[in-house]
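Severity: low
Component: inverse-folding endpoint
Summary: output formatting inconsistent between runs
Steps to reproduce: submit the following structure tokens with default settings.
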């Protein structure tokens, strides 16, 4: 019996060919990587690679400066060799500009900065710091300047022609602005003036303003609403500043003239008070029941009455005797008390 030698199947032969091919490919790839690594080790590093490894250069997307000039180091992070070189004029104080990728790349190439944009969307937003001179600061500076010239700032107020005045100035002038020339019409109070300050580059900065200068005076007013019959005390009085030419002759200007008085009608807080609006406190109200009294050296008579008028201390009012229905006149001497003279009327039964 003849023994048959088994032959590998077609599938087995294909598998062996694949394995032999894979091993060869893997060996080739490994040798290529090894050769590339050895070649890279033998080559000297480029200048760009050295600079990037030592101090990578990056763009500053947001920059705030306080100078008339933009310097190279303002735009890039890293070790920039010529960082102090001025490359452009800065925007005006308080203004902002956007530097585009193309311009930034041209600057980098011109000054040997190892940077290039990754896309056209890379930009730098550059903002210039400023000192904001607004209307409130301007008024204070004007009053300070007038005070240095012998005027009393507490008695003056400034009304600018432009109440929304606002101007951005270099930060170097902060605290250095002073009143220069001022021209004023004494009748109308109108003025023109300028503020001056030296800048860092030796120039003289000027800010022109115009408006009206007003004399002010302090006037006593009530600190709370008060009703008739209430007595005004020191705690009820505060002060307000008014234009002197708007304070009428009949307005109370001395707080002493208000103390101990009473409003003749309801008065609101914070408003100027006319002389006629206050007086001695009302001691007897209209239709109030009062005590009538007649007094002489020899006798004293009293009766009940009803006041036909209101009255303060010392005022003469009419009162009706509630028992006899007789109308008499008398002088208010205290709260609810009216003195009747014997010759004026009889208050007996």
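Observed output (run 2 of 3):
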């Amino acid at each position: 019996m003849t023994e048959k030698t088994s032959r590998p199947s077609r599938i087995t032969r294909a598998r062996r060919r694949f394995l032999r091919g894979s091993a060869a490919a893997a060996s080739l790839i490994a040798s290529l990587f090894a050769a590339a690594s050895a070649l890279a080790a033998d080559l000297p590093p480029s200048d760009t690679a050295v600079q990037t490894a030592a101090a990578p250069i990056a763009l500053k997307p947001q920059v705030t400066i306080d100078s008339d000039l933009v310097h190279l180091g303002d735009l890039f992070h890293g070790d920039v060799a010529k960082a102090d070189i001025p490359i452009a004029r800065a925007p005006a104080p308080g203004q902002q500009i956007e530097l585009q990728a193309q311009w930034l790349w041209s600057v980098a190439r011109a000054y040997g900065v190892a940077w290039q944009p990754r896309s056209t969307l890379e930009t730098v937003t550059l903002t210039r710091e400023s000192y904001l001179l607004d209307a409130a600061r301007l008024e204070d500076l004007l009053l300070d300047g007038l005070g240095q010239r012998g005027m009393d700032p507490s008695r003056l107020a400034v009304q600018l022609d432009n109440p929304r005045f606002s101007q951005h100035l270099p930060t170097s002038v902060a605290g250095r602005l002073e009143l220069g020339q001022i021209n004023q019409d004494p009748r109308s109070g109108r003025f023109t003036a300028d503020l001056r300050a030296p800048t860092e580059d030796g120039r003289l900065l000027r800010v022109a303003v115009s408006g009206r200068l007003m004399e002010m005076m302090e006037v006593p007013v009530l600190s709370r609403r008060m009703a008739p019959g209430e007595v005004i005390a020191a705690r009820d009085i505060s002060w307000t500043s008014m234009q002197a030419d708007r304070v009428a002759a009949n307005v109370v200007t001395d707080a002493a003239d208000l103390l101990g008085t009473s409003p003749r009608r309801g008065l609101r807080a914070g408003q100027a008070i006319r002389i006629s609006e206050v007086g001695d406190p009302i001691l007897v109200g209209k239709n109030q029941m009062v005590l009538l009294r007649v007094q002489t050296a020899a006798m004293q008579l009293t009766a009940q009455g009803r006041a036909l008028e209101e009255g303060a201390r010392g005022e003469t009012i009419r009162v009706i005797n509630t028992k006899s229905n007789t109308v008499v006149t008398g002088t208010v001497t205290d709260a609810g008390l009216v003195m009747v003279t014997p010759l004026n009327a009889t208050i007996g039964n």
